[in-house]
Amino acid sequence: MRIACLALAIIGALGAAVCTLCYGAVAAGGADVGDTGAAAGGTLMFAMSGLQFILGLAGGIMVMSKTGKGEKGTIGAVLLVLCFILSIVTFNWLSVIFFLLAAIFGFIAKPVVADTGAAAAAPMQEPPTT
Predict the structure, then answer these.
(1) Alpha-carbon span 116 to 30, nearest angstrom
(2) Per residue in 44-74, pLDDT tens?
């Protein structure tokens, strides 16, 4: 589950990066024409999509690293829920499902338990001889 969470977070973040570039172009186009409303709205959406990109990558990496150390990845999953909410606010329908699934997988991912070596310390049995 932790690898699936990371993969879905990366795919969602790529969708957020595409939207970030698009909103940046809208802001620049509005500023060139002199339309301050389009420039301000494009800048706001640019900032929210950029935040979504950064939080999505950070959340996926946090879930992956925390569960790999034997801890719960709850903080990373909460960041992915924030990305899910931001993707709804910014109308980024491409990333909505990816961030939703990544957040769900982040919450249900089980921490990896390190092998304590108990199995390695047990004496090996000799095969029976006939």
Answers:
(1) 60
(2) 888 998 999 999 999 999 999 999 898 998 9
Query: What is the 3-class SS of the chain, one letter each residue?
Result: CHHHHHHHHHHHHHHHHHHHHHHHHHHHHHHHHCCHHHHHHHHHHHHHHHHHHHHHHHHHHHHHHHHHCCCCCHHHHHHHHHHHHHHHHCCCHHHHHHHHHHHHHHHHCCCCCCCCCHHHHCCCCCCCCC
Phi and psi based region of residue 91 (left: phi greater than 0; alpha: psi -120 to 50; beta: remaining): left
> Per residue in 76-93, pLDDT tens?
999 999 999 999 998 888
In the structure encoding, which two tokens stand for residue 45, read together?
């959406």
Calpha distance 7→117 (Å, rounded): 31
Would you give the distance in Å from CA 77 to the centre of its chain?
Answer: 8
**Cα dist. 18→24, 69, 97, 125 in Å?**
10, 32, 16, 59
pLDDT at 100 over 80: yes
- pTM for this entry: 0.79
